[in-house]
Amino acid sequence: MTKETGPGELVAAGEILKMLGVGRSRFREIRRHPAFPAPYQELSVGAVWLKRDVERYIREHRPPRPADDDE
Fold first, then answer.
1. Position 38 pLDDT exceeds 70
2. How far is 8 from 50, CA to CA, in rounded Å?
3. What is the pTM of this model?
4. Chain centroid to CA 65
């Protein structure tokens, strides 16, 4: 018997806001960017994305934030 695997971990807007470190209005702008991944599925409660797709977008299109140095 083989174990079925799903598409992978899913994330909704709330999780993506935290991953990006932005608010809702900025996320709406980022979502319109042509390189931002399309939602995996649109549900009645909103869109969900594959976490790995969002992580790839962040790696490739979001510059690292500068470290908060006290010096």
1. yes
2. 7
3. 0.80
4. 17
